[in-house]
User: Which sequence fits this backbone?
């Protein structure tokens, strides 16, 4: 029997010991109810999460009590200790954090020696980020130098302006070929940009955009430059996302940055080629439909003319038409 998503993710690390799940919202991957020794850090308490997701029409029966509520401080400050956990799980969280380096160093500080940080990360090729350029190492470094605490106005603009849905969905399979349509009108991107520029209010957006190789490149670069002690222990590409396990106990191997960069470009280009191919296919279908309609109109008109010329009235009025033609020739 095929494993479900939760089982596949849990199979990537040792689930024994004490853990932390960051941002499980309404769907924890490591639920207390299943017997895991886990604490939860989220941006709302359990009651707030239930209210929010119930309004969105989602099942909130799996929401569990939140142990720590993020308030803008570092996770180590919120939790108030170091080296507390054997593992940390964060599903579709890292792309939201304004300062990726600080997030990773916080997780490293919270882990016991040799502990595992387990990440589920969306693949831009299979979600509303499909048209956004992939994030670079330089951008990650700049956000850290800036001490970024919230998404920049530019990121807010890009998240809205580039967002696309496929067949009405904001996430899909890599094999899907449905039409891409905008999620929100472009004017919304400008409105939110101005809001982010004029206010300190936190506007939650995807701060980072990845394909598998671009994420591996960023982590390897940060480890190589000594910004983080975490290194890649395992990497698993799935349809629509990828699972990554990072640990300070991972082997000291250096990935080929050039090869990863080329692979990242190829993966990103794949998404655009698929989108362009789908657009060409739709244009071809539209042209075929127009041609078919034109041929049908032509056939209908030909039949109408044939019906007229075959009619009794047409035959009876033939002498009158001949006389009219003769008069026209005589006086012209």
Assistant:
């Amino acid at each position: 029997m095929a494993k479900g998503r939760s089982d596949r993710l849990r199979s990537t690390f040792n689930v024994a010991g004490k853990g932390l799940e960051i941002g499980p919202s309404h769907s924890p991957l490591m639920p207390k109810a299943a017997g895991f020794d886990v604490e939860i850090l989220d941006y709302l308490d359990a009651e707030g999460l239930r209210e929010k997701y119930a309004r969105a029409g989602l099942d909130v029966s799996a929401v569990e009590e939140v142990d720590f509520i993020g308030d803008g401080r570092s996770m180590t400050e919120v939790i108030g200790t170091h080296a507390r956990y054997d593992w940390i799980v964060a599903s579709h969280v890292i792309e939201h954090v304004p300062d990726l380096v600080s997030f990773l160093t916080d997780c490293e500080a919270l882990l016991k020696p040799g502990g595992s940080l387990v990440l589920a990360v969306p693949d831009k090729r299979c979600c509303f980020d499909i048209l956004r350029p992939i994030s670079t190492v330089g951008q990650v470094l700049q956000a850290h130098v800036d001490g970024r605490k919230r998404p920049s106005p530019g990121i807010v603009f890009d998240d809205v302006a580039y967002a696309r849905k496929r067949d009405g969905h904001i996430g899909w399979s890599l094999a899907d070929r449905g039409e891409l349509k905008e999620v929100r009108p472009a004017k919304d991107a400008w409105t939110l940009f101005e809001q982010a520029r004029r206010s300190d209010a936190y506007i939650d957006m995807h701060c980072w955009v990845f394909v598998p190789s671009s994420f591996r490149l960023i982590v390897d670069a940060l480890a190589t430059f000594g910004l983080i002690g975490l290194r890649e222990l395992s990497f698993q590409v799935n349809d629509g996302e990828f699972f990554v396990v990072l640990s300070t106990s991972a082997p000291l191997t250096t990935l080929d940055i050039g090869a990863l960069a080329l692979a990242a470009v190829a993966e990103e280009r794949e998404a655009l080629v698929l989108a362009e191919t789908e657009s060409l296919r739709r244009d071809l279908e539209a042209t075929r439909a127009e041609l078919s309609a034109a041929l049908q109109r032509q056939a209908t008109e030909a039949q109408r003319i044939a019906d007229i010329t075959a009619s009794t009235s047409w035959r009876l009025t033939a002498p009158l038409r001949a006389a009219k033609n003769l008069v026209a020739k005589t006086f012209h």
